[in-house]
Amino acid sequence: MSGAAFRARAQLDSPQIVTLASLAAQSGRYFGAAVRMEYLRRDLDRDLRDAVEAECSLLTPEIDLKWDVIEQERGHLTLTQMDDLVSFAQSSGKKVHGHTLLWHLSVPSWAEAELADRKDWTLVRNHLAAVIPRYAGIIEDWDVVNEPIETGHRQDGLRPSIFLRAFGPTYINRALEEANRLAPSARLMINEYGLDYNLPVENDRRYLFLKLLERLRYDGAPLHSIGIQAHLDLAKAPFSQKVFEKFLKDIADMGFAIVITELDVKEHIYTLSAEERDQRVGELVTDYLDVALAQPAVEGVITWGLSDRRSWLYVTPEDYVRHAGAWKAGEGPGLNRGLPLDASMRRKPMYHAISAAFRRAPSQ
Asked: How far apart are CA 70 and CA 127, in angstroms?
């Protein structure tokens, strides 16, 4: 099915040919999704590729730019997948989001060992220099540091990562300055998760994250935008629009732009019908995006995947234990239904929740 055919089928949902990208653009924003090039080139996933072409104006590499993927052996860079993703994006008129440069869970084992031993910033500098200039003029926004906050360890809230152990709390400043030197016209971002719910741990994480942003702004660090991952979870406490609204305003008042970078929903009650499950996902996304897109500083929404067929979220062994006896041996609830399209690329309530939120959003 071609991109044109996908858009034609979309008329079943709407009397006008509309996509999430076009609806986002009407309010001055963008819509994108995380993708993996290994899927987009498969004949089996041709319909997913068509959907990505039709619905997205921006692509995030889900894994193809992570340090432990591109440099498993020191000095041996493997950027073929990333180069192919960039070519695909350029050929279809899409932007690429640079995810991610420094993340504690994507450090190659050789680099982690050397950083622990020698605390040599040259390793970080060389990594950034190998990646950022390669995509100059193509990638305009970079996740420089991913998930730097963790509660319950330090007063400043910084995660006890290899970067913190090797270089101290100013490693974030140094990484931003290094990236800015390599790409002075790019916009640099910190990306964080667990900032969404009115729960004690997430209240603490929001507080600590805001303190980090205040410090970086005071230091004059070249930080331009903030990524809020938005991995939503139906098992968590009810989402508080008031709490989230204040958090977004606090970030915006510091002068930072905001991007919803990794939106998806983990389900909880898998014994409901598919229609009921989809409705619950859609309702949560509606509540979330109505607040997010009411904030003028929010520039775009990126989902962590586009179709349930290729999602990092799945029905876990714990989910099966929680629903013990609900299914016969060898059966189950199918896929987690927390992305806009189902496994057959049909639009679900989450899709319509996103499109409706863009329609309601005030123009930037």
From this structure: 10
Rounded CA-CA distance 323/271 in Å is 7
Kindly report the pTM of this predicted structure.
Answer: 0.94
List of residues 6+ apart from 237 with CB closer than 8 A: 197, 198, 199
DSSP secondary-structure letter at 248? Answer: H
List, in order, residues 6 or more apart from 4 with CB less than 8 Å away.
none
Q: What pLDDT, on the 0 to 100 scale, is given for residue 8?
A: 41
∠ Cα 159 160 165 (to 5°): 130
Which CATH number belongs to the domain containing residue 166 in this structure? 3.20.20.80
Residue ranges of the chain with pLDDT lower than 50? 1-15
Q: Name the percent of the chain in helix, strand, coil, to the closest 5.
A: 45, 15, 40
Crossing angle of helices 349-360 and 274-292, in 10° steps, is 20
CA atoms within 13 A on the CB side of 115: 24
pLDDT tens for each residue of 160-192: 999 999 999 999 999 999 999 999 999 999 999
What is the spatial distance between Cα 187 and Cα 79, in angstroms, rounded to a whole number? 22
Q: Which helix (H) or strand (E) holds 30?
A: strand 30-35
Name 340's Cβ contacts closer than 8 Å, sequence gap at least 6: 20, 55, 303, 306, 307, 347, 348, 350, 351, 354
How many folded domains does the chain comprise?
1
Rounded to 5°, angle at Cα 157 from 152 and 162: 95
Domain range for 194 is: 3-360
pLDDT of residue 16: 56
